[in-house]
Amino acid sequence: MSHRVLEVKRLGKNFDGIKALADFSCSLQPEEILGLIGPNGAGKTTLFNVASGFIAPDTGKILFNNNDITSAPPHRITRLGISRTFQNLRFIRQISVLDNVLLSFQDQPGEKLRNVFFNWPQCREQENSNRKEAMTLLEETGLSHKAGDPAEGLSYGQQKLLSLVCCLATRSEVLLLDEPVAGIAPERIDQILRIIRSLPEQGKSVILIEHNLDAVMQVCDRVIFMDAGRKVSEGTPEEVRNDPRVIEAYID
Amino acid sequence: MEYLIHILILICLYTILSASLNLIAGYTGLLSIAHAAFYGVGAYVAALMALHLQSSFLLNIICAIVLSGLLGALVGIPSLRIRDDYFVIVTFAFQVITFSILNNWVSFTGGPMGLPGIPQPELFGLKISSHLGFLALIGFFCVVTLLITRQIVLSPFGRVLKAIREDEVFTQAAGKNVATFKVLVFVIGAGMASLAGVMYAYYISFIDPTSFTVMESIFIISIVIIGGAGSFWGPVVGAIVLVLLPELLRFVGMPSSIAANIRQILYGGLLVAFMMWRPRGFLGEYAFQNKEARE
Amino acid sequence: MLWQLIINGIIAGAGYALVGIGFALIYNVGRFFHFAHGILFTVGAYTAFLCNQLLGLPLFLSVPVAIAVTAASGCLLNLVILGPITRRGGSPLVLLLASLGLYIVIQNVISLCFGDDIKTLSLGTIEKGLDFFGARVTPVQISIVISSAMLLIAVALFLRTTGLGKAMRAVSSNAALAEVCGISSRRLVLYAFGIGSALAGIAGVLAALDVNMTPTMGLNALMMGIVAVIIGGSQSVSGIALGALLIGLAQHVGAWKIGTQWQDSIAFIILFIFLLLRPEGFLGKKIRKAAV
Fold this sequence. Notes:
Oligomer: heterotrimer
Mean pLDDT of chain B: 92
Number of domains of chain B: 1
Strand order of the largest sheet of chain B: 1-2
Radius of gyration of chain B: 19 Å
Number of strands of chain B: 2
Number of domains of chain C: 1
Number of strands of chain C: 2
């Protein structure tokens, strides 16, 4: 069994009596795209929230490259190398598209006050370098013409793309993508799926929550089906699709 | 002419106060009505040190800034766990408690009687005795304050502040330790406000608690908001407008007995008017709109 | 001695509870901190003063007039200023700031019209304190406690049994849902302002009768009311009553030990303890930052 990038061990989480996660375990292999599917309320986003440090689980733990990150705060988890997008699409509307991407870079000397005042040349240098990289990312995704515009002016599809670009800017090893192609035009879906498919080659691993089963089939190496906080089925996309338990759950 | 110099000194004073509060409330979105407490602490530290220790002007400034900075950190910490409208109440409480201490710890602060006889500031052997000289001094500090805020605001640090203002969750997910930024911005804002306090103490040479009440805090936040929260020149515009307007009325023959009331009605009224029609103030880009982090 | 302090504390708490309930009602239905609530306390007192001392009306007429004027003023503030701001999309912070501005304007108008000196509103007879198991209480103080208790019970019953009250509770827990169910929050907010402001006015008149009045009297009453609401939990009448009682007692018993000048600080320190340990108050709902 090869090294696992992310290991989720028996997570449990209760919200006012509702079991969002019930003894849930899974693992993510290096350079793998893992799909997470299941009906609404199955606990998929809750899993992301626990993995990214926004919620503490009641039981269980999460290991990232064998480090226990169960109780780590969100900003530390991102710095360690796990980034995420949000189902309800979060980004900073009032600043420019470029600034959103620049915000997402890690280890910026200019974010430390002592550097702002006493080491401005280093800040300037890093900022210029980040700016170049950000523009490259924006160009590759076709958003560069909007770089200076306030992010709120983007179309919904462009906003989804921006979220993904921000994740890429964090240079994290693991990306948790929450419904990256939901509710957008087919061309945009293709574009985003192409980007996701290229991530393992760059050494990254992805967990992907999606309701769009075609997308999941196209892109994922493995799929987990969740329902009511539990793992119901796991395997290749084909295997899970044909699993009678999955079919039954969807009919319910 | 003396009168004009006095007005300019006041404008510089309130520019420092509002620019520092603008960092906290305008750029980071942490609405606070505790600013007069930092202002007062600065004034009292400088006055007490000058009167009891005869220490140098610069040392007094440094001590005032350090103490106020610590108090700022204390105020900033609750903002990490408490929602923004409840946090306003917390800042209100800090303000009232600080005033209480200044007003009631008579043996230390002189209580309601205040501290008279603050000596003139002395810089590198030069005593600053004329109002014009003082204007140059406070003008210098005003420019320094504005330069510091500009440096912060245009830096990546400033970018994170603006992000926190709009969506703390996203900012955390972007790898930023939001707590550090919030506490730091309070420390800096408080430190700058205390600098204004030091200036005030030396200028008037007598201080009492009535200059550092809740009403004063509300006046300062009004300047920030009316000038334009989150804009760089907003505090300057706000300070000019809110210092000049009451003075202009006095020219039009308003009796001084009601001057204080009219002044408050003026900025209170402007606050209401702007909230009704232009919450982002004259120049601002932030109108205290709903944050993404709310449930 | 201690007994007298406890009695004084209860009387103070009764006043705070009245202010707090009105404030909480407006907060729950209107969803913002209405600082101008404090000035309605003052408006109540000064309207009674105007009617009684300047217009010569007897107290039993002045007081109802004062309450009516205060309720109407509160509604006016909502109709003319705070309501329109809400409809233009003003956030709770914007409304808080507008309310703050209103407080300042009105306090200064009162100051201009009546002066800053201490005024009194009296029943006309020199009161001797009555003896209550060894403590001194004046008739006004007894009526403060009794009317506060009665009004608190009335509000609790109103919220629990009447259609309007239940609608208000629905809106406080979920405004969007309530709107969908056909409950117009605009009218509810107006009623909340009316009732809340009337309560503040009553508290103001009683305070003026008990002690005295100045234009700034409302600020302190408001602060104590807010602390009571936060430590008691904004959605619980009994919680607010408990909170108000706690503050009143702590202040008076504490003042005995460390002096009356620290009364405000005592209340705020209690506030801090609650915000740190139990921000939702005795019986209230969470106000900590939301998660994702």
